[in-house]
């Protein structure tokens, strides 16, 4: 079963190798990681990243540009790791992502009335029988709790006795065409898609610990094109949302406000930008080269912050609306974990704490032990790519996970892990038809 998730290495290399590919609005990032055959810690072998200008708000808008970005990132990761990359696990985001609750019910079919994994899979399949537009597909079905003969609060029903089993689930959907375009780009780059995973779920695997997920926490991933939200409680994801406003709009505000090109705006945002003017201790002045022979401009950090702060406040206000809508705002005992490239902006965590009224910390991927490249990936910008790797290893260990089952026809015990990828199977069928 691990073979479908394995990339090519030397014949003597017994490690399982996984590649996570984060196709973002501002960058494409590939991370190659391995785990010893005995199930030891994860070791990062190579990192590749390339600028991305083929996406808008997390959705592919230019196939050729996206393919070239993927190829550059993968080639860099291959060179650094010495691994020939063939298969990847890829993330999906965009403001087309929607989620809603559903409920399923089945009777326990076997003679001794003991719940099996097959019964759980039938139940999750039943929960997917919802009316949905033809242009949308189910990405994830995430159980919230199981109920057996009226007894609720059950999180792992396998092995329990009962006659009737129900489940409250969280269903995540996306546009079929958006998933198809991601699949098409990866295939044209010469790679095989092993799985397509919702990006805030992946980021959660990388930066949240079990204690935070148990007591209640909101993950806010501010990327280039989208801001992703995932709320966890009782170690289960309870709410997901994607907002189509993020770091690139901050850069555009700087570009328009100062009358400079986008590349300059991105550079000064990273070097001098601050999301909260009050945290600036030294309001120094920096110089921006003039355009077309014009004189250079002198701008202070405070002036730049006055451009950045309103947009960041707007992003966080949209986040606040989603937290209220979820019904979990008052149950986030662990507060908020801020990650993604937007978390690197100075003052971002302080501003988030002011707007949301919750404790905020910056989420950094950790837990790579003695990996030589651990310091390189311990940054919020790598949260999604690292999470894709962790999720892939988790699926290898648990081929029939109780908390994250994808769409259709994948509950049979004889099916391989790769065959169980519903969204991937749907993409394959699409290409066979056209």
Topology:
Layout: E1 16-23, E2 27-35, E3 42-51, E4 55-56, E5 59-60, H1 63-81, E6 87-92, E7 98-107, H2 117-127, E8 136-148, E9 151-154, E10 164-175, H3 176-188, E11 192-198, H4 199-207, H5 210-215, E12 217-222, E13 227-233, E14 236-243, H6 247-258, H7 262-272, E15 285-288, E16 297-300, H8 301-326, E17 336-339, H9 348-356, E18 360-362, H10 374-377, H11 383-397, H12 422-433
Parallel strand pairs: 1-6, 6-11, 12-17, 17-18
Antiparallel strand pairs: 1-2, 2-3, 4-5, 7-10, 8-9, 8-10, 12-13, 13-14, 15-16
Helix pairs in contact: 1-3, 3-12, 4-11, 6-7, 6-8, 8-9
Keywords:
5-stranded mixed β-sheet, Nucleotidyltransferase, domain 5, 434 residues, globular, Dna Ligase, domain 1, single chain, alpha+beta, disordered N terminus, 12 helices
Would you give an account of this structure?
This protein has helices spanning 63-81, 117-127, 176-188, 199-207, 210-215, 247-258, 262-272, 301-326, 348-356, 374-377, 383-397, 422-433, and strands at 16-23, 27-35, 42-51, 55-56, 59-60, 87-92, 98-107, 136-148, 151-154, 164-175, 192-198, 217-222, 227-233, 236-243, 285-288, 297-300, 336-339, 360-362. The protein is α+β, with helices and mostly antiparallel strands and 434 residues long. Among the domains are: 2-95 and 176-204 and 367-426, 2-Layer Sandwich (Nucleotidyltransferase, domain 5), CATH 3.30.420; 98-174, Dna Ligase, domain 1, CATH 3.30.1490.
